[in-house]
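Duplicate of #3305? Posting structure anyway:
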């Protein structure tokens, strides 16, 4: 809530508010990189956010000051579903590491939206092409530079978690980079008009993840996929720490599922080495071996109880 103004599990208001109540209030002080006081009031129809007593209009403002990595059972979608899920994964990292990215992102998608509106109504779009190409190149340049830095850490984290196969991560820009994007838009204009949307550009980008020259989800077991997902997120956290001197906050929902004791301990040790603030949930408890766990809590009937300090 403090990083996204919503639950990571659901957008529904009823999933976060106590039964019978019509609002929720959350307040916290954050000392992550800088000190902030964050307050959120949320109802079924409105969200009010304050940072250091001042109203903020965009959720992106609290996302920026509360960098949060979330690993859940649904994180498998990065490997199993369409490009949008992998692009979303990359967007998190670029947004937090390259602070100029968000403005470029907004400009590009504003132009894309306008171009698609004109295509759907079968109108002239060439006047938008130059701006589209300019912002597309800027967006792709930032993404490409980020992924070049991230790939080093992906390999380090994957090896550290026991993924020793030939892992290759490659970025597909969303258009044929051997040709000018302006030429591609001209060549595809008739087809774009027929379809009613722009077929090439950064919005069609994808992250390709292969193991031994095959898509990772086709060759890895569910447990191995989870370890790879953890490696991807740890890589982002490590790159973030390299840039800012501290790791993002990490949430792992249901660490126990699909991992045996040995792999769970590998993940826990790496989290410990990363020196991040980590929140882990589990129905059955988590075996931590010889690692020092600072706080452990039980949640029952809506009550949080400390069981270990």
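Output from current build:
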């Amino acid at each position: 809530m403090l990083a996204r103004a919503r639950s990571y599990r659901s957008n529904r208001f009823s999933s976060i508010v106590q039964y019978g109540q019509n609002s929720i209030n959350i307040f916290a002080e954050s000392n992550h990189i800088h000190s902030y006081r964050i307050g959120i009031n949320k109802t079924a129809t409105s969200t009010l956010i304050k940072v250091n007593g001042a109203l903020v209009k965009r959720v992106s403002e609290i996302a920026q000051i509360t960098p949060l990595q979330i690993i859940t059972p649904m994180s498998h979608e990065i490997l199993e579903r369409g490009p949008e899920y992998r692009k979303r994964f990359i967007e998190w990292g670029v947004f937090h590491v390259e602070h100029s990215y968000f403005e470029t992102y907004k400009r590009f998608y504003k132009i894309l939206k306008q171009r698609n509106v004109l295509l759907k109504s079968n109108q002239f779009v060439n006047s938008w092409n130059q701006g589209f190409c300019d912002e597309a190149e800027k967006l792709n340049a930032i993404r490409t530079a980020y992924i070049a830095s991230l790939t080093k850490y992906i390999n380090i984290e994957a090896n550290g978690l026991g993924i020793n196969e030939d892992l290759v991560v490659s970025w597909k820009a969303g258009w044929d980079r051997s040709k000018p994007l302006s030429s591609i838009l001209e060549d595809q204009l008739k087809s774009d008009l027929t379809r009613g949307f722009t077929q090439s550009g950064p919005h069609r980008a994808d992250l390709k993840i292969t193991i031994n020259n095959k898509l990772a989800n086709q060759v890895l077991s569910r447990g191995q996929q989870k370890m790879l997902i953890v490696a991807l997120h740890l890589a982002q956290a490590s790159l973030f720490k390299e840039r800012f001197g501290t790791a993002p906050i990490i949430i792992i929902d249901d660490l126990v599922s699909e991992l045996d004791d040995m792999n769970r301990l590998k993940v826990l040790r790496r989290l410990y080495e990363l020196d991040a603030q980590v929140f882990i949930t589990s129905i059955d408890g988590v075996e931590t071996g010889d690692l020092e766990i600072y706080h452990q809590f039980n949640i029952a009937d809506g009550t949080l109880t400390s069981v270990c300090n």
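Confirmed duplicate; merging threads. The radius of gyration is 22 Å. The chain has two domains: 1-65, 67-308.
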